[in-house]
Specification:
Length: 143
């Protein structure tokens, strides 16, 4: 019974992104987004589908009104081009959100405390549905 409980605990840790990521001191970079949706601390950071890091903190910049996301990248992935594009993506239709990186073509690489300047905010389903309904209502009124 005890072994079953321990197995369930480790399964829950894997599913909730609380286990499985080895926090080896790598390097941190920042990315700014207008909307992070449901992104959370410890969400994966991937490139080409491979997990290369995780979100280590999420803050709010009250001057620019943007979310400032700090990414903790593993040291073996130290050749991420400076013109990399960061997108907030969703696993499946209603899954958890994570950051996907698309590498650029620069010959210079991100360093400790660097910044990814090209970002795409989270896709918020409620906003898209609201815009669709509003445009349909406008069509009916002018129609």
């Amino acid at each position: 019974m005890l072994l079953g409980g321990i197995a369930l605990f480790f399964l829950a840790m894997q599913v909730s992104n609380l286990g499985g990521f080895k926090s080896v001191s790598g390097y941190q970079v920042e990315a700014r987004f207008d909307n992070i949706g449901g992104l959370k601390v410890r969400s994966p950071v991937t490139m080409a589908g491979v997990r290369i890091g995780e979100v280590s903190s999420i803050d709010f910049d009250s001057t620019t009104y943007e979310a400032v996301v700090t990414l903790d990248l593993l040291p073996e992935f130290n050749q991420v081009p400076t013109d990399t594009f960061a997108k907030i993506l969703t696993q499946g239709i209603l899954g958890e959100q994570y950051i996907g990186l698309d590498p650029g073509g620069s010959e210079r690489y991100l360093q400790q405390d660097g910044e990814i300047t090209m970002t795409q905010s989270a896709f918020v389903l409620e906003e898209i549905v609201g815009q669709f309904l509003f445009s349909k209502a406008e069509e009916s009124a002018t129609g």
